[in-house]
Amino acid sequence: MLKNHKCIPLEDIAAEFKLRTQDYINRITSLENMGRLSGVMDDRGKYIYISLEEMKAVADYIKHKGRVSISHLASKSNQFIDLESKAQLVEDISSITEIIDSLWS
C-alpha cells in the first residue's frame, strides 16, 4: 500500500487496517528497521515511501556534488523522488500486507 501510493496520510492507512495511527507508525518503524521499507514521516502526518533506486539517485548526486546543504538537497529532492502514485502488482501489495499482519500477530 505504501509503495503503491508513495505519499499517504498515516491516519488514513491506519484506518484502512483498523489500527490506531501510533500502532501503524510502530509497524512502519519495524519494517524500516528490518530493511523492508524505507521512507520519511513528515510533520503533517504523512509517510513518503522512498525506493532504493531513489535513495541511490540521492547518494549519487551527493557523491557527484561533494558537500551539499540540507536546504539545497531538499530543493532538488523532486528530481530524485517521484511522489506520484504507482500501479503495483497485486503480489507486492499482498506481501507488504502479510508482513504488516505478521508483525501484529
Automatic annotation (TrEMBL):
Provide the Gene Ontology terms for cellular component: endoplasmic reticulum membrane
Q: What is its main location?
A: endoplasmic reticulum
A Pfam family per the record? DDRGK
Q: How does it sit in the membrane?
A: Single-pass membrane protein
Where would you find this protein in the cell? Answer: Endoplasmic reticulum membrane
> Which is one GO molecular function term here?
ubiquitin-like protein ligase binding
Superkingdom to which the source organism belongs: Eukaryota
> What InterPro entries does the annotation carry?
DDRGK_dom-contain (IPR019153), DDRGK_domain-containing (IPR050899), WH-like_DNA-bd_sf (IPR036388), WH_DNA-bd_sf (IPR036390)
Transmembrane stretches in the record are none
Question: What keywords appear on the UniProt entry?
Answer: Endoplasmic reticulum, Membrane, Transmembrane, Transmembrane helix, Ubl conjugation pathway
Gene3D superfamilies, per database record: Winged helix-like DNA-binding domain superfamily/Winged helix DNA-binding domain
What's the family?
A: Belongs to the DDRGK1 family.
Q: Which PANTHER family match?
A: DDRGK DOMAIN-CONTAINING PROTEIN 1 (PTHR48176)
Q: What does this protein do?
A: Substrate adapter for ufmylation, the covalent attachment of the ubiquitin-like modifier UFM1 to substrate proteins.
Q: What is this protein called?
A: DDRGK domain-containing protein 1
What does the record give as the organism's lineage? Eukaryota, Viridiplantae, Streptophyta, Embryophyta, Tracheophyta
